[in-house]
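Predict both folds.
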Amino acid sequence: TDVPGVATGLAVTGAGGDVLFIEATAMDGEPGLTLTGQLGDVMKESARIALSYVEAHADELGIDPTAMTKRYHVHVPAGAIPKDGPSAGVAMLTALVSLLTGRKVKDTVGMTGEITLQGKVLPIGGVKQKVLAAHRAGLKEVIVPRRNEADLDDVPEKVRDEMAFTIADNAGDVLEAALQA
């Protein structure tokens, strides 16, 4: 995450939790969205929703509206592992906003949650596995949806004591916690 446009998402795989680096870039060309990285339909939908939210809220996010005339590419690298499920929306949103504002994402933060067109953060599954993966990866803070706050009780106390948690209701909560000043 040492450049704008990269966010750390958290996922559940067959082997438990995992960390995914979500990358976003922009280029000249026909406006639109390209998605790569063995993404299933739900993750593709999440990326489209994230871009639509950014387009609708560009002004309040501090994004030049002319930037929305570019072509965007969102990539979730992780080899040939298929990835699907409703939990990467906030990371995709954060990667896009980071790219378009030039603000880097904090390298100590991982996030999980789905985003709506209105910017609400929706609950997801696998909180325990995702937090454990974040801890193993050396992350210090995890952003989780408000409706998953009770799921943090399932995380071992030793891990909870070593990490900070941001409980997010909306896109603003996520971006405030994730982006560098």
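Second protein follows, with its predicted structure tokens after the sequence.
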Amino acid sequence: FQDMSTIKAFLVGMSNYTVPGLHDLPFCRDDIALVRRTFLDGADIDPSDITVLGWSGIVDSNAFLSRFASFQPFIKEDDTFIFYFSGHGGNLPDKGHVLAFSNKFVLTQELIDVITGIKAKNKLVILDACFSGNYEIVPGTIINDEEWLEPFVNSGCAVFASSSKSQESCLHP
């Protein structure tokens, strides 16, 4: 009997922006390259199970949403799904946290809600963006510090954010 579960990863690195007021982040391309290499070498993920957007530095929000939607049917119930984003993030009044794509913003909460609904047994979201701690997995749910892992394993979604909802992430080469 062979375990049929796999790890599927979707990596996004946003280095170049046309959104007014956002400066380019040249190291995000390096971030996705390093995370991909870590998954290939350290987690032994098959290259065909990793989708990467951002090699050119540009990721249009519509292209992202389309590619992300076409990726989801390949995720099975016994799989683990990892979503990684490196780029600008911010808090917009009355909208909450957003991830900045090359041309416009995507609401972080809506993306997390979609990921939470994916049929994989485990979902992990890694957000390397300013103010990325501004989200909710299940609104109003309080998880005991000593029991946080149990709801995640085999059914849940965990989010690792590089900063709190009021904190900027730093840019380092």
